[in-house]
């Protein structure tokens, strides 16, 4: 679609003056949703962007149980923990195998999740994206923090193709072909909302999620893989983190930058309050005999969230909102480290009790 300079499509996005082969298509609802994504560093640190992208696409499709907190809990990431002082890439995963996670989310939301096939080249990835956008389906794309492809346009030349990208760390913006080509070469993985399914009964979802919470705390499936030492998971991971924080012989360079900036902590513990809300809401979906244990588990996760807030007040953005550079300097303070270690130990005690109560509730649910 050509036109004079400054001409805009019906969606309000600019189109270049160009040849007759020009094309532009934008899913405006996806763009608007991405404009509401967090950009401020403290908020960004505490948001699992992959879950936020998934929530966004499911809500656009019409799913009713697909708020960010829902997806965070259903994925198992609201209560999981993994500790490796150097490698954050090992931590940014759900505690269950991907197939189990997808089944749980799909059953609760009533929508399948599909991976469009492409041959790995940027040209074929573009073909898939353009076809999906034409269908009115935005695409979630893997990145350091996941992205949403909301639109695409081209001027009839290979190098003139562009993709409208939301999510990640920036407001929605058009990627040039060169940038998109680099993404396809380094990442390339995409997924989108699939077919509509029957929604599972709420008591089945509640039972599956409660079981996943308890298992992740004591026997996280990631621990069965060939991850390098000293990775520790679940309650053992929290215990190891508290121990290292309190060991003042360890200098801050014992931890990688993503721990010192708080990202590795926030991304893993910011869901405790959401987990408490889910558990409390699940009481009405489960057998009455499980109610006292479920209420106790919810209360324990709330107290754990308060304890993690204590860590934040010593070593996180709660101590300084000046940015991650200033925040990292706090790790040189023996007093801050000791108090932060104490707070993490308190969180461990509360989460241990939460798991004990979950297991008690599950015994009633399964009987």
Question: How would you describe this structure to a colleague?
Answer:
This protein is an alpha+beta fold. The chain has two domains: 1-66 and 111-196, no CATH class; 88-97 and 201-367, no CATH class. The chain has 15 helices and nine strands. β6 and β7 (173-175) form a beta hairpin. α3 (49-61) packs across α4, α8 (202-219) packs across α15 (334-366) and α9 (234-246) packs antiparallel against α15. The protein starts with 22 loop residues before the first strand and ends with a helix. The model is unreliable at 1-20 (pLDDT under 50).
Strand content: 5-15%
Helical content stands at: 40-55%
Contiguous uncertain segments of 5+ residues: 1-20
Number of helices: 15
Global morphology:
globular
Helix-strand makeup class: alpha+beta
- Rounded mean pLDDT score: 91
Largest sheet: 7 strands, antiparallel
Q: Give the H and E element order.
A: EHHHHEHEHEEEEHEHEHHHHHHH
Radius of gyration: 22 Å
Total individual domains: 2
First-to-last CA distance: 64 Å
Give the total of beta strands. 9
